[in-house]
Amino acid sequence: MSRLCELRDTLFIGDRKDRDIYNRVFVVSAFGGITNLLLEHKKSGEPGVYALFAHDDSNHKWQDALDRLADAMKAAHKEILSHKGDVQQANMFVDERILGARNCLIDLQRLCSYGHFRLPEHMGHIRELLSGLGEAHSAFVTTLMLQRSNIAARFVDLSGWRDEGDVCLEQRITDAFQDLDPATEMPIVTGYAQCVEGLMNEFDRGYSEVTFSHLAALTGAREAIIHKEFHLSSADPKLVGEEAVRKLGRTNYDVADQLSNMGMEAIHPKAAKTLRQAGVPLRVTNAFDPGDPGTLIDDQPADTAAAEIVTGLDIVTLEVFEQDMVGVKGYDSGILDVLKRHNVRIVSKVSNANTITHYLDASLKTMRRVERDIAKMFPAAEITSRRLAMVSVIGRDLNGLSVLTRGLQAIANIGREAIGASQGPRNVDVQFVMDRDSMEPVIKALHEELIETAPTQLSRAA
After folding, report:
1. How far apart are CA 122 and CA 168, in angstroms?
2. How far apart are CA 261 and CA 219, in angstroms?
3. How far apart are the first and last CA of the chain?
4. 20 to 30 A Cα–Cα from 326, which one of 29, 344, 416, 460?
């Protein structure tokens, strides 16, 4: 989104003329870094407005964070908008939204100073309120930019700002599009949508894809397209080299789900489900390479077996060993209850007679709490956690490729060691576990062995 001016010249307008510009609906995310300032930093965990308000010991901290947020928003749109009048409008928009959010938080603090009201009960609503600020800002700025280029763009705010009614997501979208004609207007829609379901509660930062998929389904879109900064490729080009990676071109939702499990979402699994059920095909393209058709994702199986993607993820292993576990029920369900209670995402799991090992996407701080709870439940168990990494080889059909055997040999050939490896009977992914320092070399080695030197129908990325 921070490269909106480039997108105007390639994606929004490009070489399109007259009516070809319209009959498209754009769902936008916030400008880079804004959601981190609103909530908390996605990777480092550095607190934003929400996190500071949730753990407030001084009004100054979250209020100062709001001021920093306003400055960041204004700096972002100043880089995009060239006309002084547009910049002034965008500044006023930011000031109005920030002031409204500030007053809301102050009023809530005042209300919760009375014993009948508890702040934790309202924090979900606060997270929803703050989340919508980023997308509303970027959608408003995008609309101003396009209108300045003589495009009939319409700002469609689904964030429920100052809305007195609670409606479901479907109704929110239907109401917003009731008097809108995409054939003569270009709707610029907020990725966040306020609704009774509470998108943040279930999807957290994946909410924009949920909004996007429901909008595509409800409007009967010919195609749903996700525009990214890069092609959906066989590996990270920065890691294995731009000349080595291959653009997928075509894959299916099974592969998309495996990518999501590895923290590399092409689309949220539930958003994909909405598109599948509505019969709307999904395409992932490079927004800055408009002449390339990108990658089509559908339900079709592969024509031939092939490894398609190699990707990695930092994980934490949770190992629970109990000598008396053999033949006794309850250990697995008990551990799962603890992980669910602490909202820990499970990447994978292996077990034997007396040991259950979960591969988790979690912080060490959370893991300490998990270990304490499991120790209370199973006092005789030995519980250990380790910071490791997982590399996964993914494809629609890996049958007959000996990925597990060849992968282990490739890892050994570069002087690294796989601590664990597993392959399921569906043959859509093979997982290798190793020290974190080994992850990048292993990705390169597996990519070279299984993709670069393999005869596949994947096309090389431009």
Report:
1. 19
2. 29
3. 22
4. 344
Determine whether 350 is exposed, middle or buried from the number of CB atoms within 10 Å of its CB (0-12, 13-18, 19+).
middle
**Residue that is last in its domain, among 175, 204, 221:** 221
Query: Is 250 within a domain?
Result: no
Q: Answer whether residue 258 is part of any domain.
A: no
Q: Return the closest-CA partner of residue 392 out of 448, 351, 319, 447.
A: 447
Closest CA to 285 of 215, 223, 342: 223
Residue 458 banded pLDDT, cuts 50, 70, 90: very low
Chain length of the chain = 462
Cβ neighbors of 249 (< 8 A, separation 6 or more) are: 295, 296, 457, 458, 459
Closest CA to 427 of 275, 258, 213: 258
Q: What is the CATH number of the domain that holds 431?
A: 3.30.2130.10
The pLDDT tens digits of the residues spanning 159-195 come to 989 887 688 999 999 999 999 999 999 999 999 999 8
pTM of the complete model: 0.81
Q: How far is CA 220 from CA 86, 199, 216, 224, in A?
A: 33, 22, 6, 10
What does DSSP assign to residue 397? B
Q: Which of 145, 157, 141 is nearest to 12 (CA)?
A: 145
CATH code of 43's domain: 3.40.1160.10
* Residue 306 DSSP one-character state: B
Range of the domain at 92: 4-221
Q: Which of 204, 221, 238 corresponds to the end of one domain?
A: 221
Which residues does residue 47 pair with via DSSP β-bridges, in sequence order? Answer: 40
Q: What angle do CA 416, 417, 423 make, to 5 degrees?
A: 125
